[in-house]
Amino acid sequence: MTKRTDGGGAATRVTVLGLGDMGTAIATTFVDHGHHTTVWNRTASKTAPLVGLGAETAATASDAVAASELVVVCLLDSTAVDEVLASVGSAIAGKVLVNLTSGSPAQARTYERWAREHGAEYLDGKLMGDPVHVGTPDLLLPVSGARRAFDAHGPALRALGDIAYQGTDAGLAAVEFMAQVAVGYELLIGFLHTLRLVQAEGVDVVEFAERVAGSVAAYPSLLTSLGKAVKNGDYPPDLGPLRVQAALMDDMIDHRESVGVEAVRMREVKDLMDRRIADGHGDQGFSGLFALLGEGR
């Protein structure tokens, strides 16, 4: 493998704790970009391929942390992170700890406090992509936490993917990650229910999926307009007035239920529309439903 320093800035001493598929891809990318990389994994045999590429290995997590100014943690979950950090202890003092393990905003803020109490600076990052995407612009990497640490080590972290600094609140990267992933799941589970609907009516699901893929090209501008409407509290008739949209809902619900397809989400939409119209906002658009979210029924 040919090492390079393009996009990675000056060479940095970096430690990677955790060599699952993602951690291995991260460590490989650092090595590839010319960074002096130390690796550690609970199962020591996983370090061998990286040593073959030019990385160094450490016997303990504490030794690995001591070897570098930048310490990157990528483990299965917060329980694993807790165990590793407990074993590291004071070795983290004076370092920059970057936690790329999936987790919640609250967990990120807890780790930030732990790092500060142990004399370290903290950055929290969330990997939005698969191991094969590490080292390419296809990996989205929101990062939040200590600004000084990001300014110092952002160039090295940029080797991993398309990095975006979210702010000094350590939890903000996790907010971005959780929200982005949630949008995907909400969209995809709705799409799967819809595939059941069209399949039950004898429609070819592949051909239908291709048509939907073309339709979603119109969604970026709509999503942007919804965000602006929510921020401003001004809800224009984005998909048409609610009183017109609401006229579709009974037919949509009846159609789904007639072929045995789940209609819970459509019933929720109808309920919100009916309530908003009853409150005198039938001239507003779909974005106006936001005003009811979180309220008691």
Summarize the structure.
The protein is an alpha/beta fold and 297 residues long. It is 49% helix and 12% strand.
What does this structure look like?
The structure is a single chain. The protein is 49% helix and 12% strand. The chain has 297 residues and is α/β, with parallel strands linked by helices. The chain folds into two domains: 13-168, Rossmann fold, CATH 3.40.50.720; 204-292, N-(1-d-carboxylethyl)-l-norvaline Dehydrogenase, domain 2 (Orthogonal Bundle), CATH 1.10.1040. Strands 3-2-1-4-5-6-7-8 form an eight-stranded mixed beta sheet, sandwiched between helices. Helix 10 (242-258) packs antiparallel against helix 11. The N and C termini lie far apart (60 Å).
